[in-house]
Write the structure tokens for this entry.
Amino acid sequence: MPILRMFREKGEKISDRTGYVRSGNLVCGGRVSMSNGMWTGVSGAVAQNQKVDTIANNLANVNTPGFKKDQLIFQEYLSQKERNTPLPVQLGGPIHERHLNPILGADKAMVAVQGSYTDHSQGTMSSTSSPLDFAIEGPGYFEIETPQGVRLSRRGSFDLLPNGEMVTKEGNFVLAPGGAKINLLGLQNLSVDQKGQIFSEGNAVGRFSIVEAEDPKKLVKTGSLLFDSQYTTKKQTAFDRTKIHSGYLENSNVNPVSEMTDLISAHRSLEMALKAIRTYSEIQQKEANELGK
Amino acid sequence: MLDSLRTAATGLEAQSANMSQIANDLANVNTDGYKKSKTEFSDLMYKTQKEPGAQIGDNSISPTGIQTGTGVKVGASHKIFEQGPAKNTGNPLDIMVEGRGFFPVQRSNGEIAYSRAGAFHRDASGRMILSNGSVLQPPIVIPPNTLGVTIDSDGRVKAQFAGNQEQELGQIQLVSFVNEPGLKSIGENLFQSSLASGVPQQGIPGENGLGSLSQGMLEGSNVNPATSIIDMINTQKNFEMNTKVMGVGDKMLEALVNLK
């Protein structure tokens, strides 16, 4: 919330020079311009609005296999002046203006969205009884070739093209280690072991490329359950913590309970920010209409 | 706020598409040869306000970016060709495929279609037809004076006549596809091949990975009512959650509008 200091005047003379202004019986910290505080409220409203957008997307994808939820991080955004504020004089005795932090732009403190990050935690698994459905347990992603380049995905719901190439539901190719496409033309009785190796009637016929991202937080979502790994490095998994489950799909890791709770709290925070804006508006109105009388 | 409204709308649309599929599955819980459907969702594109790794100061880069998703879409809906339960009917012209394979039939409009439901009948000229009038391909004609018909597991149809006479009438062929979920459902328990399913590969039952036939049996619907109902409950709750998001978006807009 806006850093607006309000305290009761105790009959002390307060000079305008120090940056405090009298407003009726209240002394408000900050430079004269009130609209800055109003913008603080606006920044809160904008941030909470973005949070609701993120929650809406998480809840819309509560049933999307391989979906990973997004979270927002807020930060306090301060002006340059505020960061270099000298320490206040030690308090003692009656409060005097020199004991207080000079505000010097602190009322410009705002909230900003610092970043969004994707929570790559494990989703639960559900049995689909489809032989071309795979779930990854532990860290790891399938490598998928799209027209835009190689992408990573946690959704292992695949199909075979008439020429035997394995593709995702969008028609992007599933890759083997080294970047070759997986081709299972004419092979019967397929099975896949926990290390992603594909067998047909007991003979190894292929392998999934399962990669781990060095920093999963730097994966960028591109939609259709794909991640772009251009900001981090990836390496083939050693299958020390990773397992492939055939005939299962990983569910979305969205937790409806926490999302609904976050939704309520974001909604209320937004209303509070709007309330602050309205309060500023009323103060300004009083300043304009009553102070000058 | 309008974004969250639109995002919630995509959620409502996707959940209601899923509900239609579940309703169709449950309606066909008793349809022989019916294969259940699966709706798969995928997320829509993301708005990227800040790339991760963007320069935010002289020596610092931002460790995370800002991405906001815009909702969900139905990525695919396809049939699951899991074997259904066997039902003993005792009818000599009921044939079940145990394993992969479809019966090729010719519809009344001349098109070739494929079916898992092998409940055959005889038409006026003795040809084996499905109840919707589609004729088994290649046609097998059962003579009028036939006393009984036996169908072997490899598809050979033999007719018995008076006086222990037996005659082979033909062999039922099965058809398989590389990508069965790519088949197009056209109703009446029939499927048509598509570019995604690949070309039909005809063969003898029991060979090259094709299933064998069993006479006097039918394959029941592979819909599992318990899982369908659980899916239905989930879908309904997910729908409700998306309406709640919409409600919050609406209240937020209202609060904003009433600010002045």
About this structure: Chain A touches chain B through 64 residues (CB under 8 Å).
